[in-house]
Design brief:
Helices cover about 40% and strands about 10% of the residues. The chain has helices at about 1-15, 20-25, 25-40, 55-60, 60-70, 115-120, 140-155, 180-190, 210-220, 235, 250-255, 280-290, 295, 305-315, 315-330, 345-355, 360-365, 375-385, 405-410, 430-435; strands spanning about 75-80, 130, 160-165, 165, 195, 225-230, 260-270, 300, 335. The strands form two sheets. The chain has a six-stranded parallel beta sheet. It is globular and about 65 Å long.
Length: about 450
Amino acid sequence: MEERIVEETTAQAKRHGMTRAEFLRTAAGTLTALWVLNEVSGLPQSGEAAPLPIRRVQCEDEDAAREVLDRRMFIVDVQLHHADTTMFPGTGFCFLRFLDTQGCQQNPEILGQLNFVEETFVDSETTIGVISGLPNGVPLGPEVMAQTRDLVNQLAASERCLSQVIIDPKAPSGSPTAIDSMEHQVKDLGGRALKCYTYSGNWFLDDEQVSYPMLEEAQRLGLRLINVHKGLPALFAPGSEQSVRTIDFPKVVADWPRLRFCAYHSGYFQSGDHPEGLDGITELLQVIESMPRHHRRRVYAEIGSSFALTLLQGPDQAAHFIGQLLRALGPSNVLWGTDSIWWGSPQWLIDAFKMLEIPPAMQEQLGYSALTDSIKRRILGGNAARLYRISRGRKRCSLPADLLEQVQQEQGGVRADRSLRVYGARTRREFLSIFGRA
């Protein structure tokens, strides 16, 4: 795919009198890359059978490309991250080992606060972002999350950023993410929802001794949304294959009727990672099906990283992924998230989702609904706006541009100055080296 993208974009750049990097920053460059993704996946480029329909003219003509990609939508990304580079000065910071060949060892700031602001709020269409940290406060703790949120909102002179409350129920009292820190995180730091990670200490949401004291405190403090990392054990926490399963949802949802629960990453397991062979979101779908309908209404799925992974397997796999979630949960219970800055600028994911379709044949054979513009708008922003109590009047098309959007316009739009930086592993060997298995 990389070779074909180089070939196609080199030819197009020459036609337009641009460098290849300049062309790749355009809407036509993005659609050329997606065209190649269709090609190497063996999928049709257009017509009813195409899950990612692209016309050749849209790869060659910038106006035609902008017509389909530059449809502004209200976008709430509920899973954003960056790293606190002050924790790890110099090369010691890169324990994350995000593609050292891209300069992380020499320039750890690429995963830091200011680059996060640029990649997310200047070089993408993200309207509002929600920052998450990690359970032990490394590499981003609650205090820095709030500082970054405040910085974004100060720079924008508008509320463009929110932050989560990060809790590890097994952390000892007095720790930055212990249960007894929740009141501080809610009342002083302004966290809007709880985020927890069952892989940190290998526990379950329905554990009455470990989890329920945390949920009781969250409910007391007025939090109504409980977000939990589920799935992707090899990518984030090798050895956590059991605790990142969604089998704890039925009991905890039933026991806490005033709370809503969201499975981040949609409980997605890559091939071979699930302890019982239930790849993808098979287990999440089984769990949801086993629950009473009135309980399902309080279950949500967030698609960060999982959408990216399925898309790169082939746009038809991304269509199946979204189709399954819509069939199981309905269009009001799927949330947009990207897991950026780990993926770089989230704009490529926004662009791909705008173009994605669920072909009629899939709908008929598998009972999926069509992925209409109305449903896309719910997933991209409307559903999260409701959960996070964001006023829909915040839609930027009805308000004067805030200061960050002005910077965006002055540079020529979201695409004009994109870094095109790759943050993660590009080969299987690089991916396995993260875990010392290369």
